[in-house]
Amino acid sequence: MLTADRLSLNTATVKEQWNLAECIDGAARHGLGGISPWRDKLQEMGVDAAAQAIRDAGISVSGLCRGGWYTAEGALTQSVLDDNYRAVDEAATIGAACLVMVVGGLPEGSRDINGARQIVRDGLAKTLEYGRKAGVPIAIEPLHPMYAGDRAVVNTMSQALDLCDELGDGIGVAMDVYHVWWDPDLQAQIARAGKSRMLAFHICDWLVPTSDLLTDRGMMGDGVIDIPGIRAAVEATGFDGLNEVEIFSAETWWKTDPDDVLTTMIERGRMC
Ligand code: ZN
Cα of 153 to ligand 1 centre, how many Å? Predict the structure, then answer.
């Protein structure tokens, strides 16, 4: 059973209703173990003010979303790298367990997915160097292959872990059930990741049918993902981080009273 203190609120889950100060307060009020802010919310509040509020609330930070987007300018540019270095600094300031990387899709007009993957590899290597000095682990989030065109050309756990093996210490994966639940190799790749590479664990559900490929994620228990099964495999590695609830839901959960969203998260957590 997942108790509230084992859950973390990803701010995307209530992004239309609450700013970061309200998310911190709400997470603490509901007895959650932590939060995971997105950078827009963090910058809106101010990084130092957020760090102070998080410390005062006595909750932890399961990750900062997100760095990456290495392919945004068609080649690896200094401005893209600088933005990633800033993200590392922000993650360090708020004491985030990791910086979550959504690595970027194909550059505009490109059909060269291998080239895009090379840009991503080089960008991760540079960010990792910086992250090691700052003491911030870098967590690659493999995204479902439907996003390879526009969001991320790292699409499976196996591919992400190959990158980790190539790049060395200080880098791992942020595994989101929404992106990887379908993978026939999932159990083996979770075991391969082990405790040292499993840096974050995101939960939500896959609805059938899904009406929007970005903003129609389900609450745990409303879809077809075997969350208890995947969670058991993750915990078998020794993973002891928080279970981060990240639900993009334009038509349902973004239109629900945020306190009810958290209450439902906690109820459903007990079932997975
Ligand atoms: Zn995620």
Answer: 15
**141 CA from centroid of ligand 1 (Å):** 7
- 67 CA from centroid of ligand 1 (Å): 12
**Alpha helices (H) along 15-156:** 20-29, 39-45, 47-57, 78-93, 113-134
What is the CATH number assigned to the segment(s) 4-271? 3.20.20.150
Q: 27 CA to middle of ligand 1, Å? A: 18
- Measure 133 CA to ligand 1 centroid, in angstroms: 25
CB 178 within 8 A of CB 10: no
Rounded to the nearest 10 degrees, how much is the dihedral formed by the CA atoms of 158, 161, 162, 168?
Answer: -170
**Confidence (pLDDT) at 272:** 83
Residue-wise pLDDT tens digits, 185-234: 999 999 999 999 999 999 999 999 999 999 999 999 999 999 999 999 99
CA of 253 to the centre of ligand 1 (A): 16
- The rounded Å distance from CA 242 to ligand 1 centre is 13
Q: pLDDT tens for residues 141-161? A: 999 999 999 999 999 999 999
Q: Give 220 Cα–ligand 1 centroid separation in angstroms.
A: 14
| Averaged pLDDT, 75-84 | 98
CA distances from 25 to 1, 31, 60 (A): 24, 10, 13
Distance 161 CA to ligand 1 centre (A): 16
β-bridge mates for residue 140, sequence order? 101, 173
pLDDT at residue 271 greater than cutoff 90: no
Sign of the dihedral defined by the CA atoms of residues 227, 176, 153, 164, in that order: negative
- Which residues, in sequence order, are bridge partners of residue 36? 10
Q: What are 263's two structure tokens?
A: 């209450």
